[in-house]
Amino acid sequence: MTRGKTTIVTGKNLILSIILNVLITTAQIIGGLISGSLSLLSDALHNFTDVISLVISYVAHYLTGKKASHHMTFGYKRAEIIAAFINAITLVVIAIFLIIEALQRFSDPKIIDSNLVIWLSVIGILANGFSVLLLKKDAKRNLNMKSAYLHLFTDMLASVAVLLGGFLMKFFDWFWIDSVLTFLIAVYLIFVGWNLLRSSTKMLMLFTPEHIDIKEIVREVHKLPKVGKLHHIHVWYLNDDELHLEAHLDFRENIDLESFNIILECIEEVLHEKFGINHITIQPEYNKIDPKDTIVQD
Question: Which pLDDT score is estimated for 233?
């Protein structure tokens, strides 16, 4: 049985963010090549990954809304988790590439057109900042939107760093700061990308959510009358909205189906209110010979 409301997330803001980032990326690539700034090019490269990630996020969001069928009984509900996983990987890969480039450039700093760097970084801050505001609300309740939001937010911070570097190069001729900022941006990308990669991987692997205590679930169910042992338990997120539980439940006596339905309703209410589980499947058993461990390897 499924309980609770489904989170409604709009894809219109993603489309607008995609358009803004295409424009930013084009301007920064041209500006980076003209000015010779590696940090500006790194920011442009990150913006390019933003475009890709936003497109992936939008496609995943669209697929998630498609209805289930006989061939796809869950529909495309896990598409957004896959999108978040892909976006996280791109963040980490791009960051590693930037670190290598920054280390190579640090030993041989180039003279850079700081004025162009400053103006383009300001444009990047404004455009990415607007995109961040567009996605901030949806990012709080959807992992896919969060992955897109993090791409944009980190790129806004990167543009702030590039702007700072532009001023330092303009007024102090510290051209080596370009490589330092690139390195710092990349390290931050790895930190953000790794956390997102870890979260999406756990969902894809059907790991028990961190806030769920299996033993506490068992204790709560065992408080109900006529209930024997709850075992063979699985708890996982299908997507950001649906937390599933399936388990076997022994009964102390051979109850009828009407009695089982009453107990099942009690279980659903308890697990939904205390643990947020909104889809519950219970297999009733009486004197059945099978493993009675809480967790059983299928």
Answer: 96
Contact 36, 110 (CB under 8 A): yes
Contacts of residues 23-26 at CB distance under 8 Å and 24 or more positions apart, as own/partner, are 23/127, 24/123, 24/124, 24/127, 24/128, 25/50, 25/51
Q: Which residues pair with 68 in a beta bridge?
A: none
Give, as one character, the DSSP assignment of residue 3.
Answer: -
- Output phi, psi for 296, to 5 deg: -120, 130
Q: How many CB atoms lie within 10 A of CB 192?
A: 20
Please state the φ and ψ torsions of residue 292, each to the nearest 5 degrees.
-110, 15
Residue linked to tokens 């209930």: 227
For CA atoms 109, 113, 118, 120, give the dihedral sign: negative
User: Residues 297, 285: contact at Cβ < 8 Å?
Assistant: no
For residue 88, give the 3-state DSSP assignment.
Answer: helix
Q: Which two tokens stand for residue 275?
A: 């643990």
The upper half-sphere exposure of residue 186, i.e. CA atoms within 13 Å in the direction of its Cβ, equals 23
Residue type, 263: I
Instruction: Give the integer Cα–Cα distance in Å for 54 and 127.
Output: 15
Judge whether 227 and 252 are in contact, CB under 8 Å: yes
pLDDT of residue 1: 54
Could you tell me the two tokens for 83? 């999108």
The β-bridge relationship of strands 227-237 and 243-251 is antiparallel
Per-residue pLDDT at 7? 44
Would the pTM count as exceeding 0.85? no
Residue listed under structure tokens 């791109």: 90
Q: CA-CA distance, 30 to 123, in Å (whole number)?
A: 14
pLDDT at position 270: 95
CA nearest neighbour of 4 among 280, 278, 211: 278
Q: What is the mean pLDDT of each run of 10 residues along the chain (298 residues)?
A: 47 79 83 77 72 77 80 84 84 83 76 82 86 82 76 80 86 84 82 86 93 95 94 92 93 94 96 95 94 82
